Structure formats: C-alpha cells, structure tokens
Amino acid sequence: TIAALDLRVSNTGYLAEVGPRLRAFFLERGLLIRPLGNVIYVLPPYCVTSDELDRLYETIDEAAELASENG
Fold it and tell me: Do 5 and 39 contact (CB within 8 A), yes or no?
C-alpha cells in the first residue's frame, strides 16, 4: 500500500503551516507520520495488518477534516 493526500488548506507547499500541526496530531495518536507541508503520505511495511491500516486511515481522515476546518 502507498497513499498520498494533498490537503486543501489556505497555505500549501512543503513549508505549509499545517505540516507541524499534523505531525503533532499523529504523534499524539501514536502514529509516526511526517507530512510534507500539506501532503500526507504513507508507505506502511508489508507486515502491516488490516486493523492497523484501518486505524491509520481513520486517523488520516480525522486529521484531514480538522485541517480543512482550521484552514
């Protein structure tokens, strides 16, 4: 699996302000995801379980909603 999402926020690009906020959001939930600005990308290992992927995608969905609301 590989996934990349480009979030629609007012400030975009590699240094977008949303990047550090997203990183903190994921770390608080125990996920090691480092966004590149407003882009969230994941490349989980082959040994990842379906439940782990479900948790990952649910958390990304939650983060995307929050980022869109907060611009």
Answer: yes
CA distance linking residue 40 with residue 23, whole number of Å = 9
User: What is the Cα–Cα distance from 6 to 1, expressed in whole angstroms?
Assistant: 17
CB distance 50 to 17 below 8 Å: no
Can you state the percent helix, strand and coil of the chain, rounding each to 5?
A: 45, 15, 40
15-48 tens-digit pLDDT: 888 999 999 999 999 999 989 999 999 999 999 9
Q: What is the pTM of this model?
A: 0.84
